[in-house]
Amino acid sequence: MSSSSSDEVFEERFDEVFEEIFEDTFTNRVEAQTSNQRSRAYIERNREGGQDRLWNDYFSEDATFSSQIFRRRFRMNKDLFLRIVYGLSENFPFFQQRRYATGRFGLSALQKCTEAIRMLAYGSAADTVDEYHCTFLFT
Predict the structure, then answer these.
(1) Which domain of life is it from (predicted)?
(2) What values do phi and psi take at 99, rounded to 5?
(3) Between the CA of residue 60 and those of 53, 56, 79, 138, what are the distances in Å?
(4) Taking the alpha carbons of 77, 78, 81, 86 in that order, is the dihedral positive or negative?
(5) Cβ(67)–Cβ(82) under 8 Å?
(6) Which has the higher per-residue pLDDT, 79 or 1?
(7) What is the pLDDT of residues 28-69, one digit of tens each?
(8) Which residues 6+ apart lie within 8 Å of 82 measured at CB?
(9) Are 78 and 60 in contact (CB under 8 A)?
(10) According to the model, what pLDDT value does residue 79 have?
(11) Assuming Cys at both sites, which of 29, 50, 57, 71 could form a disulfide with 137, CB separation 3.0 to 4.6 Å?
């Protein structure tokens, strides 16, 4: 057997093995991604209802909580708070409400600012108030 023919045999066998490995790897990867997508559960968080409750509790004319309670919880008056919300939502994209890939709206500027200002008012880190964030906004 000549050197060139053994090189050709090696290359053909190498190509076959490479294609098998590549195909198996690709198939496994696609199956893993598909099974991950199927295993994710959707959790309804009722963000729209949270926005409505937040507004009704603190900012409507006949709010559930008085201005004094608002001031004690947020350490500022409502007018200043709403000016901050407006300023942040106008100047920083993070504080603007967006649609998710599913077409549903995320948290409103008011909801995002409420949590950020509460974290500042009480000196908490974001990961320590995550559960409280849901409780505060949605209960």
Answers:
(1) Eukaryota
(2) -90, 140
(3) 10, 5, 12, 17
(4) negative
(5) no
(6) 79
(7) 777 776 655 556 677 777 778 888 898 999 999 999 999 999
(8) 59
(9) no
(10) 92
(11) 50
- The encoded tokens of residue 124 equal 């908490």
User: Which of 99, 109, 111 has the alpha carbon at shortest distance from 50?
Assistant: 111
Among 47, 113, 124, 103, smallest CA distance to 78 is for 113
Residues sharing a CB contact under 8 Å with residue 49, sequence separation 6 or more, in sequence order = 138
Domain ranges of the chain: 1-40, 47-138
Helix (H, G, I), strand (E, B), or coil: what is residue 65? coil
Per-state percent for the chain, helix, strand, coil, to nearest 5? 75, 0, 25
Q: From 50, 107, 54, 106, select the one nearest 81 (Cα to Cα).
A: 54
Residue 96 contacts residue 88 (beta carbons within 8 Å): no
CB-based contact 81:128 (threshold 8 Å): no
Structure tokens belonging to residue 52: 């409505």
Residues in the chain: 139
N- to C-terminal Cα separation, the chain: 81
pTM of the prediction?
A: 0.56
